[in-house]
Amino acid sequence: MAxxxxxxxxxxxxxxxxxxxxxxxxxxxFAVPYFIYDIYAMFLCHWHKYRVKGHEGAGPRSLRTVTRxxxxxxxxxxxxxxxxxxxxxxxxxxWRQGKGDFFLGCxxxxxxxxxxxxLGKVLILYKxxxxxxxxxxxxxxxxxxxxxxxxxxxxxxxxxxxxxxxxLHRVPLALPPACNLGAALLLAPQxxxxxxxxxxxxxxxxxxxxxxxxxxxxxxxxxxGGRALD
Length: 230
Description:
By secondary structure, the protein is mostly helical. Helix 2 (22-52) runs antiparallel to helix 4, helix 6 (114-125) runs antiparallel to helix 7 and helix 7 (132-150) packs antiparallel against helix 10. 75% of the residues lie in helices and 0% in strands.
């Protein structure tokens, strides 16, 4: 939904600064309760997984203890959601003063990778991480995450440079420091998560390669260790 709204907004804005679209403010107001609910839903999932794994057998755990373990495990995600609510929402509603709907639409396009991230977690939950579907989904997640969350920032700088008649390398110097700082703070967790995705993809295909080699050996009439099959 977010990426669809983002595409409608940024494709409708020909002028990157002055053009406006009604969906920008409407969807921004819709997104705030979503982020708050998502934190609550993540906490409930953590709480129930904690109980299913049998931790309650070790004795009662207070709400404070469970909350502390939740924040330790999901600190970056919770911080991201809080920043969206406490920083990005006031900036998009008050500080922008109706300008830059094009760039807000671009930022919404970052959610294009989210369905693939969620599907990957569901496949792992049902122990389907060795299936072809999981590999295809992982490849799509890698590509969409890189394009919509990493390359997104150079693209927005390039779009502003084209509007202002500046080459890409001069755009950061022409922007207020607050804009560059905000972009850097938003990009940093994306780079961290992209690194985790790359590491997970590397582990997945490293595990698959020995199995493929063994299967090929059996097809060629050789057993494990290169022994010929009688």
